[in-house]
Every structure is written in structure tokens, then in C-alpha cells.
Amino acid sequence: MADVQANSGSLEGAIAALATTPRLLVALDFDGTLAPLVDRPEEARALPAAREAMLALTRAPDTRVALISGRAMQSLMHVAEPPEAVWLSGSHGVEVRLDAAPGVSLSEAEQGDLSRLREILEAAAAPFDDIWIEVKPAGFALHSRSATPQDAEEAERQAHERVSTELPAITERRGSNVLEFSVRSTTKGDAVRMLREAAGATAVLFAGDDVTDEDGFAVLGDADVGIKCGPGATAAKFRVEDPAAVARVLSRLAELRAH
Ligand SMILES: O=P(O)(O)OC[C@H]1O[C@H](O[C@H]2O[C@H](CO)[C@@H](O)[C@H](O)[C@H]2O)[C@H](O)[C@@H](O)[C@@H]1O
């Protein structure tokens, strides 16, 4: 594993230490971490090596695997095709599937905000080619990967201004060529905390690539391992170059954890 170090120590050593923890939670972001980024979200798939390593970890003793994604749960299940043993958190921590069926129930006020939010974002996207809206149970993502930088900036500016004026309680998040709006302020950090407790984990590995994954890195402790995939500022202890490198780390952990 010849991967880059971010903030401390050797990743190989940290993985070896993590493999000895009594109960391990392996929490993984999907897009940009297990799956390379692509223009059309529905076409994203985990690298075969990443999927294989993830499945090997589900078979390891006292090890729980979870996916923590910004995607809506249905979308995450469609692209990740996870086995039932994998716990899921979608919509940046708003949706959770442990062993039971997932579900989010919004209050009347939240449903009202969601309807108005949709109108505002549709109006912001309408004048531009290649700006589109992804629907989630508690919010929307304004996508601009295929748009010109000028169109992306203008659509996002309009969306931001109208939402912050009319719906100041809405949570706004920037991701990779995406600006997201949610009626819930739940974060990936909340998801890591909740899944850690549910798994009774004595240590956590969390890997992610995007700005929103920083909420997950922020709640890790000394016994945990945070891995940032790709460039950008991070609070993670370690950094690797791309999803292929994440797959190598997971595969090594699965190998060590199998014994
Ligand atoms: O938390 P993640 O699993 O990384 O999900 C974050 C967002 O992923 C998706 O958008 C991103 O990936 C797309 C496919 O590669 C890409 O086209 C887009 O530009 C990226 O922002 C997803 O569509 C969003 O809902 C997620 O929040």
C-alpha cells in the first residue's frame, strides 16, 4: 500500500492497528470514494476491486460495513447494490437503513418547505442547459457537472439567494459540481456517530472524498482512521489518491481482519 500520508503516521500501520480492534465499523462514502465520479449519477458504480473488498469486509468477524452517502437511499441502493448486511445512510445522514426498511417521515412544516424549495430550484435551473435537479426525500441536489462554469455559477447564485431569503432554515451544502438543499440539517458526522453506537464499534474507519465528508472526519477519535480520497483540505489523518487506492486499503484491511 504505497499511499500518501495526510496528517500523521503511516496508513499501513494504522490499518494494521485498526484490524486488531474488538468491534470494527467500516463506514464508506460512495461517489468519488468507491465509485469514480461520472456525468450521470445513475451510471456511477463501485470499482470491482472496491466492491470485492467491501464484500470481503462484510464476511470478516466482528466487522460491520456501512455506506454513508449524500445520495437518497433509493439511489444509493440502485448504484451500490449492497447486500443486506451492509448498513446504509442516505441523504447526508437523514435516511438510515439498519436491519429494518428505511423511511423518513417529514413534518407538515418540512413538507411545506420542501414544496417551496422545489419551486425555487426548478425556477433557478430552468433557464440553463445541463443544470438539473435530483429529488431526495428531504431535499434536492442542483447538479451542474455538464454545464458551463458561467451557467453553473448563475444558477447556483439564484438558488442560493432565493432559498436563503425565503427559506432561511434550509441547510445548504456544496459538493462536487453540486449544490444541495435539505429541510434537515443532519450530517454525515451524525451518521457516523449513530452507526458507531448501533454497531457497538470500538474503532471506525471512515473514507470519503468530498467537502461533506469532512463532517464525518470531524467526529473520529484517536482509535479511528479517517481517509480522504483525492485532493482538497481535510481533517482526515490519511489521504489516498483515488478510488483504486481506497480499494487497496479496504482489501488489506479485509485480509488482516479475516484472521
Ligand atoms: O456522499 P456521496 O456518496 O459521495 O454522494 C454525494 C453526491 O453524489 C452524487 O453526485 C456526485 O456524483 C455524481 C456521479 O459521479 C456526479 O455526477 C456529481 O457531479 C457529483 O456531485 C449524487 O448525485 C448526489 O445526490 C450526492 O449527494
UniProtKB/TrEMBL annotation:
<protein>
    <recommendedName>
        <fullName>Trehalose 6-phosphate phosphatase</fullName>
        <ecNumber>3.1.3.12</ecNumber>
    </recommendedName>
</protein>
<dbReference type="GO" id="GO:0046872">
    <property type="term" value="F:metal ion binding"/>
</dbReference>
<dbReference type="GO" id="GO:0005992">
    <property type="term" value="P:trehalose biosynthetic process"/>
</dbReference>
<comment type="similarity">
    <text>Belongs to the trehalose phosphatase family.</text>
</comment>
<dbReference type="InterPro" id="IPR044651">
    <property type="entry name" value="OTSB-like"/>
</dbReference>
<comment type="function">
    <text>Removes the phosphate from trehalose 6-phosphate to produce free trehalose.</text>
</comment>
<dbReference type="InterPro" id="IPR006379">
    <property type="entry name" value="HAD-SF_hydro_IIB"/>
</dbReference>
<comment type="pathway">
    <text>Glycan biosynthesis; trehalose biosynthesis.</text>
</comment>
<keyword id="KW-0460">Magnesium</keyword>
<dbReference type="Pfam" id="PF02358">
    <property type="entry name" value="Trehalose_PPase"/>
</dbReference>
<dbReference type="InterPro" id="IPR036412">
    <property type="entry name" value="HAD-like_sf"/>
</dbReference>
<dbReference type="InterPro" id="IPR023214">
    <property type="entry name" value="HAD_sf"/>
</dbReference>
<keyword id="KW-0378">Hydrolase</keyword>
<dbReference type="GO" id="GO:0004805">
    <property type="term" value="F:trehalose-phosphatase activity"/>
</dbReference>
<keyword id="KW-0479">Metal-binding</keyword>
<dbReference type="InterPro" id="IPR003337">
    <property type="entry name" value="Trehalose_PPase"/>
</dbReference>
